[in-house]
Amino acid sequence: MECPFSILTACPPSLSSPSKRFSYLYRMNTPLIISPGAEAYAQSFTAPEAGLLQEIARFTQTAHPHAHMLSGQVQGKFLSFISTIQRPRYVLEIGTFTGYSALCLADGLSPEGELHTIECREEDATTARNYFSKSKRNHQIHLHIGNAAEIIPTLSHQWDLVFMDADKTGYIGYYEQIVPKLSKNGIILADNVLFHGQVMEDPITGKNAKAIHAFNEHVKKDPRTEQVLLTIRDGLLMIKKRAE
Ligand SMILES: C[S@@+](CC[C@H](N)C(=O)[O-])C[C@H]1O[C@@H](n2cnc3c(N)ncnc32)[C@H](O)[C@@H]1O
Asked: How far is the CA of 38 from the centre of ligand 1 (A)?
């Protein structure tokens, strides 16, 4: 009997072969490090997305050639939970894409809070801006267009919550820019730290997987912080300052 949360139920019935189903799930934001069945099960037992997030996800999955970059429902809800529990004043996101994760991170902003999100691709920034304008948080969202490494030093806030989700070779640099500006109970969440499982290869061959592994090592050795690597989606590294 077919498991109700197997790869089959997560795919349109027209996709008959396993390879077609895997490629469908990859495009639909399911990096294969987590089994597609487990991902489908997790999605079905995660609270549904708000209407605007559904709209962004639908648009991205049908119209964007890099739809797999979208955080998606499970990770998005996790970001939203952290934000609503923490009630941050200042949130930083590196890698806006079409705006999905930014709106999740904005969920818990305090009334005077600000979310700063950075995107280098004009086209994606325009898409995100359009969706932000439909959100009740629009007045609290500051979208910066350009290279994150140059923009971060121009922002003088103490960050309560940071989501790092851009070019993987930049992670160590972003981390070093952010740690001195992390608030006392601030949290950094770094995405794709399993890099589709490629960080576990020996030797690691891909440029991005190498950069991510170097980042994971860098954080592990840093006496200023401590971290937990969560196997959500493509891996999320949650980092905070060490208690003094
Ligand atoms: C994985 S996507 C972000 C996905 C988004 N956080 C979400 O969950 O929907 C990465 C984004 O980072 C942007 N990006 C890559 N390098 C960048 C850089 N150096 N500065 C700013 N944005 C960058 C890319 O254009 C892309 O839109």
From this structure: 26
